[in-house]
Amino acid sequence: MKGANSTMTHLEMLKKDPMNPNLYREAGLELLKENRVDEAVELFSKGLVYNPFDAVMRFWRGRKYIGREDYGIAASDLKLAAAINPEDWECWYYLGVACYLNGMYEEAKQAHANSRERMLKYGVKAIPATCDWYWMICMKLGQPEEAQKVLENVYPGMETEDGDYLARTLLYKGYYKPENFVEDRMREIANPERPRIYELMLSYGLANYLHYLGRDEEAIPLLKKLAESPDCRNLFAVKQAMMDLDALGVSYQAVNP
Known about the structure:
Layout: H1 4-16, H2 21-33, H3 37-50, H4 55-67, H5 71-84, H6 89-101, H7 105-122, H8 127-140, H9 144-150, H10 163-173, H11 181-188, H12 195-212, H13 216-227, H14 236-248
Helix pairs in contact: 1-2, 2-3, 3-4, 4-5, 4-6, 5-6, 6-7, 7-8, 8-9, 8-10, 10-12, 11-12, 12-13, 12-14, 13-14
């Protein structure tokens, strides 16, 4: 069983072999399992000095920089990870997320197109998630027809790891109506693994959709509720709500992490 002892073993080995990038990678991954994120990122940064083309360290450092809201650095790491390992759908997916949050919409669009292509190729059950991001990107770019076209990839009852993203994309597609969307979807989900996160994700999808329908009088209160959420501060839905309110020039109560 891997745990603290395994982590310490890697760290102890690093003291004897401090130029071995493989040890930095393995020790960093073990630290991530223990949620010691800052320490893991530091190890990845050191390890990349010895092997700057290690796709795993680039990927995980990039993902964690998203959580720090260092979107430009995150995108740089993830773009290199995707270039090193172009068949890895996750590299493209999180590159798309980082670029979207950094306002680099064309780059984000291509990244999610690449992610979707590889998901379809390898049978990855996360299609609704990348379609949701692609829809949002196209709407940001003023391309509603292309946004609707990507929704051809989603349908009711499809097998997916992301029920919240599936519900949101079906909302965009017109299968669900905005009225009571969050409440009805929450009742339909039997024992969701993360009910609070699920609720926030559904709420952001609804708010964003209402915005594009021109119903900001309904969207803005939802966005403010998300932006002022006392928990789940690192959730994409919360970060996006804050960004959207800033773009709309709407103030909200800042919450210290």
